[in-house]
Amino acid sequence: MIQTAGGLLNPIRVSADILKALAARATEALAGELDGVVITVPAYFDDAQRQGTKDAARLAGLHVLRLLNEPTAAAIAYGPRLRPGRGDAVYDLGGGNL
């Protein structure tokens, strides 16, 4: 549980509130509704943590297309910039993995 000015909230509810705010910003920036979302999670998340993330998204009114490990998302984001034969490497130097 997380203590807030409004009382105790569970982590899924807090995550849902954050996701809802992010979705509102994305909807405004894209000038349209979101059909679905892809959410990144730390690679070390276990099944319960992944399910908690999906539950939070559901509470936020989002349709989860997929959960994607953060290092995989980093590789996908930089992949189009890589050129064959250069020997580029992509890594995620985050708080929990390398």
What is the CATH class name of the domain at 2-67? Alpha Beta
The chain-level structural class is: alpha+beta
Largest sheet: 2 strands, antiparallel
SSE topology string? EEHEHEH
* End-to-end gap: 30 Å
Describe this structure in words.
The protein is of the alpha+beta class and 98 residues long. The chain has a domain of 66 residues: Nucleotidyltransferase, domain 5, CATH 3.30.420. The chain is built from three helices and four strands, in the order E-E-H-E-H-E-H. The strands form two sheets. A two-stranded antiparallel ribbon has the order 1-2. Helix 1 packs across helix 2. The model has no long low-confidence stretch (mean pLDDT 89).
Layout of helices and strands:
Layout: E1 2-4, E2 7-9, H1 11-30, E3 37-41, H2 47-59, E4 64-69, H3 70-78
Parallel strand pairs: 3-4
Antiparallel strand pairs: 1-2
Helix pairs in contact: 1-2
